[in-house]
TrEMBL record:
The keyword Oxidoreductase applies. Coiled coil: none annotated. Keywords: Oxidoreductase. The keyword Oxidoreductase applies. CDD domains: SDR_c. This is 3-oxoacyl-ACP reductase. The lineage of its organism: Bacteria, Bacillati, Actinomycetota, Actinomycetes, Frankiales. Belongs to the short-chain dehydrogenases/reductases (SDR) family. It comes from Pseudofrankia asymbiotica. One of its GO terms (molecular function) is oxidoreductase activity, acting on the CH-OH group of donors, NAD or NADP as acceptor. SUPFAM superfamilies: NAD(P)-binding Rossmann-fold domains.
Length: 251
C-alpha cells in the first residue's frame, strides 16, 4: 500500500499503544513516520509534548522539511473522581492531553503544505460524563481544540479531525481495574475491546486523500459504545426478561 508515499507524518505517543500502531500503519502505507514520545527508543525521538521549547527545537531540526500529517496520540489518564482530584494532577492531565496537541499544532502547522492532515486522539470520555474528571475535561477540550484548529487552518487547505477510541487494549487500559474493563465492555455493543490497529486504520483514512473533503469531523472508534446513549443497559435487561406477547386471536 502506498497511500502515504512521500509523506512525512509526525506521531506523538509513538512508543506505545495507539501511537505505535499509527506509526506502523503510516510506514506500511509508504509514508515516513517521525515518532515522538517521552520514552524514546531507536525508532522514537525524545520529546515531552508539554514543553514548548522542545517543540520549537524539533521544528527547527526538520530544517524546512514539509510535514504532511500530525497525529497527537500522547496522553495520560488520571482516574481520581470529582471529590478526590488534586489541582496539580488536574493541570498535568490538561498539560499532556490538551496543551500538548495545541503546542504540536502550533509548531508544525507552519511546516504543512496544502492537503496536510491533523488527527487528534480524543476519547469516548469526550462524548460522555465519564467519572475521571481530569481526563474527561481534558478530552472534551481536545474536541474544542480540534474544531477551532479545523476552522483556523482550513484556509491553508489543512484538515483537522478527531478520533474517539472506546476501550482499546493498551498499556493505559491495562492499569484499569477489572471492574472498569467489565463495565466498559458491557456498554460496548460489539462486546469486546478494540485493538490499537483498529484505531490506526481510521486515522490512516483521515491522513489520506480519501478524506480530502473531511475536516472538523469526529469519528468514534468504540464498538458502538457512544451510539446508544446508555440505552444498551435497558435493552439488555428487557431482552433477558423478554416474554413474547400473546397473539391476538383472528376470531
Ligand atoms: P499508552 O499509555 O499505551 O500510550 C501513551 C503514550 O503517550 C506513551 O508512550 C507515553 O509515554 C506517551 N506520553 C505520555 N505523556 C507524554 C508526554 N508528556 N510527552 C510525550 N509522550 C507522552 O496509551 P494509549 O491507550 O495508546 O493512548 C493513546 C491515546 O489514546 C491517549 O491520548 C489516550 O487518552 C487515548 N485513548 C485511549 C483509549 C484506550 O482505551 N486505550 C481510549 C480512549 C482514548
Amino acid at each position: 500500500m502506498t497511500a502515504l508515499a512521500g509523506r512525512t507524518i509526525v506521531v506523538t505517543g509513538a512508543a506505545s499503544g495507539i501511537g505505535a500502531a499509527v506509526a506502523s500503519a503510516v510506514e506500511a502505507a509508504g509514508g515516513t513516520p517521525i515518532g515522538l514520545d517521552q520514552q524514546p527508543s531507536a525508532r522514537v525521538r525524545s520529546l515531552d509534548v508539554r514543553e514548548q521549547a522542545q517543540w520549537a527545537a524539533f521544528a527547527a531540526q526538520l530544517d524546512g522539511r514539509p510535514v504532511h500529517g500530525l497525529v497527537t496520540c500522547a496522553g495520560i489518564t488520571w482516574r481520581a473522581r470529582l471529590g478526590d482530584v488534586e489541582p496539580e494532577a488536574f493541570w498535568n492531565t490538561q498539560a499532556v492531553n490538551v496543551l500538548g496537541p495545541l503546542l504540536a499544532i502550533r509548531a508544525l502547522a507552519p511546516l504543512m503544505p496544502a492537503g496536510a492532515s491533523i488527527v487528534t486522539i480524543g476519547s469516548l470520555a469526550a462524548l460522555q460524563g465519564h467519572y475521571p474528571v481530569a481526563y474527561t475535561t481534558s478530552k472534551w477540550a481536545v474536541r474544542g481544540l480540534s474544531h477551532a484548529a479545523a476552522l483556523e487552518l482550513a484556509g491553508r487547505g489543512i484538515r483537522v479531525n478527531a478520533v474517539h477510541p472506546g476501550f482499546i487494549d493498551t498499556a493505559m487500559t491495562a492499569t484499569a481495574p477489572q471492574t472498569f474493563r467489565d463495565a466498559s465492555l458491557a456498554q460496548t455493543p460489539l462486546g469486546r475491546a478494540g485493538a490499537p490497529e483498529e484505531v490506526a486504520s481510521v486515522v490512516l483514512f483521515l491522513l489520506g486523500d480519501g478524506a480530502s473533503f473531511v475536516t472538523g469531523a469526529e469519528i468514534p472508534v468504540d464498538g458502538g459504545a457512544s451510539s446508544h446513549g446508555g440505552a444498551k443497559a435497558v435493552s439488555d435487561a428487557l431482552r433477558a426478561s423478554y416474554v413474547p406477547p400473546t397473539p391476538v386471536s383472528a376470531a
